[in-house]
Records
---
Amino acid sequence: MTGIRRTVAAAALLLALPLSVVVVAPALAASPAPAAASAWSNAPAGPSVDVHVELPHPTGQYAVGREILHLVDHDRPDPWVPSAGPRQLMVSMYYPAKAGTGGPAPYMTPEAARLMLDGKLPGNTIPTRAVTGTGTWAKSDARPQHGRFPLVLLSPGFTMPRTELTSLAEDLASRGYVVALVDHTYENTGTTFPDGQTLTCAICDSFPPGGPEAVDASRAKDMSFVIDQLTARSHPAWRYARMVDADRIGMAGHSMGGSAAVPAVATDDRIQAGVNLDGTMDYKVPATGLNGKPFMLIGHPLGDGQEDPSWTDAWSRLDGWKRWLTVAGSNHGTFTDNPLFFEKLGLPEPPGTTITAARGVELTRKYVAAFFDLHLKGIDRPILDGPTAENPEISFHP
């Protein structure tokens, strides 16, 4: 996040950022700052004892399957490391599955987990298995349900592995969506490829020319390529591609992933709706809007009545159905899995955080699913109409 969100929250967040941040919060600074590492050097390295984190149970009617895809865009060189050749992406596909089929789906690879923990906590003593042993609900190689389902693309925050949005991905799949959870190579602590190589971040120490807007635009291209691969008429990249309803596609993301939803929705006619989870909108909504496409903003309170100018500017430009929700007591990481780890590991959250990790996951799942139910399935969801007694943390703007 950048702008006023950085100004208000940076000091606190640098002491309690999501576990999947290497050096600096996603877009917390105009360019990532070495100061983040020094701030973390004063934070406790964490316990050396084993802990076990279990993700909240998905809330939908379906069991959840997961498959990992390795996609190669031979028409596009990697934007950050051109010498690496064509752009390569790792994508976790979550889908409605037959109950009782498939085997355990690990949270993330040991090397990616080690790089995440060591990069986040200098002098780290947290065992890698504290992350790799996370209990998930998806099953590898589970048999798919019959039918065609809307596709939701998910993009994590800058420097964050895709796994930070696992709870959201599992829940959406359980509710009847196919979900493509994308790692943006060279933009996070580590992405493991099928050959066993784990590629680390190439742009975390300083943004490339064009700044965060260039990263947002690149992510939009990543997402369009993923759609191409999943909806190709001949030889799609995924063996269950028949499950994807190409006429119903949406995108959501956290932090920079949320910001990237703007160029993705604006430039790809196939993406019909977008959600930004607490990301400053470095890539501006075009003056002409988003062609009437629905867009939702969900964020944490900035305090003292402040508003992120990028959100205020975007709000005035959004020309379709729109909502701006604020979650009382939340922080930047609330909309991810990361607070679940913070609670178990005894790591601090930013001052002013009152919402529990489980409640943060619950609200994120509930409102993101309601948005896509409305705009991709045509199902009315009254919780999007205004404040409700059962969800008192949610306020609507304006």
---
Amino acid sequence: MRQELGMFGTRRQRTGLIGLAVPSLREPWFAQMVAQVVEFAPEFGFSVAVLQTSDSVGAEHGAVSGVGFPEVDGVLVVPRFLTAADLTRRPNPLPLVLLGEHVERSTFCHVTVDNRLAMREITAHLAALGCTRIAMIGRRSSPASDAAGRRELGFLDAVGEVSGIAYEVIDVPEFSLGAGRRAVLDLFVSGSGSGPDGLACVNDSLALGAMRGLRELGLAIPGDVAVAGFDDIPMAAYSNPPLTTVTPDLPHLARSALELLHRQLNAPLAWTPDMEQVTVGHRLTIRESTEGHTIRG
């Protein structure tokens, strides 16, 4: 370890180790994020210690000060509960980069995807196919998800731009395969009317679970119901049918986060982190879960 003069004027030993805190490694998107950060970290001279906060307020609050990690030089954190006040009152103000979900009015480095725009685009794709009854699966209030909230806004933007579309937003307890399946069974079995002909899901796990539920009900994908997801997890390309989804630029996200953390660690004392808000790109990956949809009579 070498001794460095830190941003706050105190001398500390560099370890070469950084922390990465994510809500759950069971969510494939976060597992992908971890893998990408670990892959790129050596380019910046870093090794990575990973912490799963498990939707715990205490674990997340501790992570931004290095609690739960070995001694680290800085931290990357996916926030779900943090406020700007939490960040400014940290007992151990390590260099910090936030990933993904937003902290309102935070001046700390942040790398994210334009969730609202991307969901607007994927929902507009369903509308352009001729879907007239579109449901969004993925509102979650406990614990709240900023990303899902922004995706809901994008969904509402899209359905509001096309006349004659009926829509609804479906709450889920978690972003999982099982929650997607249950949402579909509730929609078609317990709901009124003929059900939606398009599903916009806030992540791919929900979409894949929804497709399982549709098959159990004997509905064709995309002939009866077109399905779209978000994140482009590896299994999305290999599902039956392969899933249309939003593909965020994950390599850019991971590399940008590491670069911002590296810059903080090597910045002059006068440099302050009020700073850099990076929005990485995305694209729509159109696959067979929407490609063959035709308007039902």
---
Amino acid sequence: MTTSTRGAARTPAVLVLEDGRIFRGRAYGAVGETFGEAVFSTGMTGYQETLTDPSYHRQVVVMTAPHVGNTGVNDEDMESRKIWVSGYVVRDPARVPSNWRSRRTLDEELDAQGVVGISGIDTRALTRHLRERGAMRVGIFSGDAVREDSALLARVQEAPQMKGANLSAEVATTEPYVVPAIGEKKFTVAAVDLGIKGMTPHRMAERGIEVHVLPATATVEDVYAVDPDGVFFSNGPGDPATADHPVSVMRGVLERGTPLFGICFGNQILGRALGFGTFKLKYGHRGINQPVQDRTTGKVEVTAHNHGFAVDAPLDQVSETPFGRAEVSHVCLNDNVVEGLQLLDRPAFSVQYHPEAAAGPHDAAYLFDRFVSLMEGQRA
């Protein structure tokens, strides 16, 4: 439930965590109520890309950077058709945006899209709480939605949890579409949309790839109907343990030996297709400053992340799978979480982070070139 009001900045708002912790501030964006999983993002820039990333569906994002909204909102940096976050939490909203591409304020955009937020709270304290207790359900209430604290807490505790949520089909395209190659066409890729960001097919198009974006419900037959040189599985929201259909499709691709690349949710799908389990991280990785080592080169990259689940695969050994040998190719240097997988006997690999990296960093852009190399090798 949301309502729009120009007086939102003066309207009291309450943030209620499922463990009973309460923060009081002012409404930011739309006025009303919203529920989701409370997570924090450590990026100091790129808030527009974060808001429009479908992977954030049903999540309330807490920005650790204290000052948000400085550059306003433009019409070029949207990663999808709408804002997907369930709610938005900032400490100090920019009073006046300053950027030559800005068309409106962040507050106005949140209001226009019905996204309930809160400002003026201690986001550092909230972030520390989530790091210690873990990501959890949360509600934001403002205007007529504010009630007694006990009643609000009961509403939060009734909300669905992220574990066990099957969300990809809710954010993916319902109809196939094509992103043409930029310049000479060299390859055709079938991209299964599990919550794809707009910059991802663009990065492939820059490399001469014609990208056929398919719904999350696409079958193996749908994938091969476009006669692909490679198959891509995108990022997306929800619990990978529920994604039985994409896992089945990926196994069909692996059986045919077509070059395969997955990112984020696609990495978890590859993990499941190979027989590994997945698990929920305590508070996840979100932001644009996560250090990851590419074990195939030894290089350390600063990378963009948004994931609350991870693959449970052994870090120190090659594993036997139904599709040959597999190993962990990338690892997070903060906590040793699996950040990438690769098959040694078939042309398939994946990473847990975002190599398209809008709005940065761009250390991992080479992964699209690695995908191209797999397709070149297969063609040769």
---
Amino acid sequence: MDARFTAEQDEIRRTLRELLHKRCGSEELRAAVDTPAGHDPALWTALAEQLGLPGLALPEGYGGVGCSVTELALACEETGRALAPSPLLATAVLTAPLLLALGTDAQRTDLLPRIASGSLTAALAVPGPALATALGLTGHDPRGEWAGGGRAGGVQARQADGGWRLYGQVDQVLDGHSARLLVVAAHTGGFARSRVLLFLVRGDAAGLTRVRQTALDATRPQARLQLRGVEGELLGYGGDDVLPALARLGDTAAACLAAEAVGAAARVLERTVEYVGQREQFGRPIGSFQAVKHRLADVYVQVQAARSAAYYAAWATAQGERVGGLALAQALQALRGAAAEGIQAHGGTGFTWEHDVHLYFKRAAGDELLFGPVHRLRAHAADVAHVFEEAG
């Protein structure tokens, strides 16, 4: 394994960092999250046209760049540094790989080039607060019971008039209020022969109601979807088992999320180090006190360890090794620690809405609610590896 980045990978990081520095500062970030979409469409267009970000990991035959998960993770690291609100996670990380893996030739040809160009945004709708379970990060559910059955937040799919109709409700859908395409997980076949299938639903479909929800992390807008006889198109040919595909997606998504969290942790640490070098107490910068140095040194070690784990997870995904969940656990813990120390070091100003440091803490807490928590990520990884099983 060559741990060095290629010139192309370094260029992706450098160019993206420069663009986000110019287009996604503190004022631009706060203005974007207050818009109905929850992100700046002009910035998304720039990311698509100048960098090809939505299609970074899509094959060139579908209009993508043809890079690997490693390049996508590096891009996520940079968007994490800026806490950039964009459809990148929902579209390129969570949805596009499913379309590529399960879609028919016609579906791939129709949808993937539009995703790669940035003209089509997409979102994955998993019923209930079970996204981490559906992606195989915090548990294993071979029957797909997390998808519900049309009640209590679940979704049921029924055949009617030669097509499919979807009924039910889905909460906590990332970018679900603005995505032009939804990939909805639904139960079908009744209780005895129940199975989970994925369906394509247009964002403007009749019978679909989408409401943006108030989220802890405003930079990750979420929506509630209500489906009342909504027309859906079956993703793929119907014979594919979507549960293994979701599990494979989960490992890829975890690697990208880990890199994103590492970027955020590194940035909040940088800001904290800069601040303690300026803030004075007893006539000297507080950064000169040994206690402050030790605390921030511990954070630095955590961030560097999390970065190594995230990079390895991104590389290992292509090799068939599933370590994304562990890398995500380490990265989320590093981000929470860095943000907490940042708030503490900034004193009273760190607790105010006007300062950006609290946004990093909310990113860590919000990601744990969606994809964790950390102890469950680690516990499931241990179960999969049979760490605590007695030898037979």
